[in-house]
Design goal:
The protein has helices spanning 5-22, 28-54, 87-110, 117-136, 140-158, 165-196, 201-206, 216-232, 241-244, 250-259, 264-271, 273-276, 280-301, 307-327, 331-358, 376-389, 396-415, 418-446, 461-476, 493-498, 512-537, 549-555, 560-608, 614-635, and strands at residues 64-74, 77-85. It is mainly alpha-helical and 636 residues long. β1 (64-74) and β2 (77-85) form a beta hairpin. Helix content is 71%, strand content 3%.
């Protein structure tokens, strides 16, 4: 088996270093050559390694743990930097580098006139490097390094337009919330090393057994890992940074917040599935948080007016689907939806970017409409993505979403647990809401009367070609999933490919009858959502003020940001101002000033002793001698 994962890691790093050091002095053509070349070679080598793995038999031989160098070797502490190349990391590499390359190409047109052109592409290359490190690390320590570097790359890209106060605030918010997740991951790593004496995946998972199943330590480790996942993948209650992150350039939204970074949490749960399988409480928590987040974010997306924020809340909702799947032991289903979501959500963001680019940075859908004839390529590709995310067959999102909903229903019927029926119902309701808000967005942008006054035109080929490629993937990308629905139960290429990683997982067996029941309901509800949007918005988006309290509650995103500001941000700021005024001003600064005054006064008194007269010095010597004689006389 050909393993070129080290080169997949090094090329983006090299591109970042070159652009970061001398990019300012390069022409745009050279910058693109370096940036595209670094990401393109990474994708080429990832593809070669992936197809080499497909040809490797038996399936158990499709895992290579390559030690690059030994970092620490002291007593029982043995830490190496190694790369784990297996079906899961191979799949993630294809998504990260493939979608990343398309976004690199698109960005050449979108960022063409930006003065920070070289800096933007250096950050993009750095992000690809960090993601590759995260998904190929063979131990928890370097997973943490990649995890933190992805957060840093996100901070740099979200705040790329640092002249804008909103962009800087959004970058800071993303960094702070991601650091909360990093802290959870760090604590989990401490517990793992304390319990198993190693941080290598193979060593840790090999020590698991009946003795560790359900233990408080394993449960704590998994819950802490999920804190990191919730922060990185924007799940309740740590989701607030993702909508604000739309302040970055639109290609950043597509790269970080649709295709790669936010799916890192889904990857981590799948990677550590042996641990989660021994912690049913933690696994149920994953499913519960995923279901609650999916429905919560979908309701908010219903009434948003910013084109990118609708897509941001949609991303949060779809990530909830992935966690629900993993919460019922269907890890391959979660990864399947991760891959299809990368296609259609990147397409949606890039399509939104094409609209924003054509309308001179306008993002409010109330100011849009009638763009179907003016942006035909963008319209048709956006329509394909909307159908895919709505779960309409045969588009990619249908197959992966159907897989998740079916596994939820089967888990409910197998266990007879009402809770899983509630999760399944939550998934169905979310599917209907998703179809409604996506077609509300589509119809509001492209239907009705054109409200602009200036001439607009379709984006250049460097932007439309990635849209077309992603549209094709959004149509055919689901064919690597399960076709048990139509009687081809053995046709599950992706699940079979990932099977060796989840050999010990007891995933629910999906029966054809239950699958058809779930499928019929999900399609029916999705169609109902689309028809409802068509009835309301087929003539474009006509905004009318609505004072209904429930509408206002959802419109203002349940006032979560306001509550955070009132109960956390403002008290912390007030405490900081008080500390600045009293601690720094009164104690530290005041103390140093008083000490200076004391020394000044002391020196002023001592200066009086220096008169310059010999008689005064002689008198001082005499008094000193007398005092010494008196001291010894009294002492003796």
């Amino acid at each position: 088996m050909l393993n070129l994962s080290l080169w997949v890691l090094l090329f983006p790093l090299l591109g970042f270093l070159i652009l970061g050091l001398v990019g300012r002095m390069m022409s745009r053509a050279v910058i693109l050559t370096v940036a595209w070349g670094a990401c393109g070679l990474a994708f080429l080598f990832a593809t070669m390694s992936f197809f080499s793995m497909l040809g490797t038999t038996p399936a158990s031989a499709r895992t290579v743990d390559q030690v690059v160098y030994t970092w620490v070797n002291s007593g029982s502490l043995h830490i190496t930097f190694g790369q784990l190349f297996d079906p899961l990391s191979a799949t993630m590499l294809m998504v990260v580098t493939g979608v990343g390359l398309l976004i690199h190409i698109y960005s050449a047109g979108y960022m063409e006139h930006d003065p920070g052109f070289w800096r933007f592409f250096s950050f993009l290359n750095f992000f690809i490097f960090a993601m590759v490190l995260l998904v190929t690390a063979d131990n928890f320590l370097f997973l943490l390094v990649g995890w933190a570097l992805v957060g840093l790359a996100s901070f740099l890209l979200i705040g790329f337009w640092y002249q804008r106060q909103a962009a800087v605030a959004a970058a800071q918010k993303a960094l702070v919330i991601n650091v909360i997740g990093d802290f959870g991951l760090l604590l989990a790593i401490f517990l793992i090393f304390n319990s198993f004496g190693s941080l290598n995946y193979h060593d840790v998972f090999g020590m698991l057994g009946s003795a560790t199943a359900g233990s408080a330590t394993i449960t704590a480790i998994c819950l802490l890992l999920f804190v990191a996942c919730a922060a990185k993948s924007a799940q309740l209650p740590l989701y607030m940074w993702l909508p604000d992150a739309m302040e970055g350039p639109t290609p950043v939204s597509a790269l970080i917040h649709a295709a790669t970074m936010v799916t890192a949490g889904v990857y981590l749960v799948a990677r550590t599935s042996p641990l989660f399988e021994q912690a049913p409480i933690a696994l149920n928590t994953v499913a519960a948080i995923g279901g609650a987040t999916a429905l919560f974010a979908a309701t908010i997306a219903l009434f948003q007016f910013d084109i990118k924020r609708v897509l941001a809340y949609s991303t949060i909702s779809q990530l909830g689907y992935m966690f629900m799947s993993e919460g019922v032991h269907n890890y391959s289903g979660g990864i399947f939806h991760l891959t299809t979501h990368a296609y259609f959500k990147a397409l949606l963001f890039l399509g939104a970017g094409a609209v924003i680019h054509a309308l001179s940075d306008e993002q409010d859908i109330r100011q849009m409409g009638g763009l179907r004839s003016r942006l035909p390529i963008t319209f048709w590709t956006f329509l394909i993505a909307a159908l895919a995310i709505s779960g309409i067959p045969p588009f990619a999102g249908f197959w992966s979403k159907d897989e998740i909903l079916s596994s939820l229903l089967v888990q409910a019927t197998n266990t007879g647990n009402l809770w899983f029926y509630i999760l399944w119902g939550t998934g169905l309701l979310t599917a209907a809401l998703t179809a409604f808000y996506m077609f509300r967005l589509l119809l509001g942008i492209f239907m009705g009367d054109y409200r602009g006054s200036e001439y607009i035109h379709e984006a250049p080929p460097v932007m439309t070609v990635p849209l077309i490629v992603l549209a094709v993937l959004s149509v055919v990308g689901g064919f690597v999933g399960s076709f048990g629905l139509i009687g081809l139960a053995r046709w599950q290429p992706l699940a079979n490919f990932l099977a060796p990683l989840f050999a010990t997982v007891h995933a629910p067996e999906v029966s054809l009858g239950w699958e058809w029941t779930s499928t019929a309901l999900s399609i029916g509800l999705a169609v109902l959502g689309i028809l409802s949007a068509w009835v309301l918005y087929r003539k474009g988006f006509a905004y009318k003020e609505n004072r209904n309290p429930l509408y206002q509650l959802v419109l203002h995103k349940y006032y979560v940001d306001e509550a955070l500001s009132l109960f956390i941000v403002q008290p912390v700021l007030a405490l900081g101002r008080a500390a600045t005024r009293w601690l720094e001003g009164g104690v530290l600064d005041g103390g140093s000033r008083n000490l200076a005054l004391l020394l000044h006064g002391t020196s002023a008194l001592l200066r009086r002793l220096q008169t310059g007269y010999v008689r005064n010095y002689a008198l001082a010597i005499l008094l000193g001698a007398v005092l010494i004689i008196v001291y010894y006389a009294v002492r003796g």
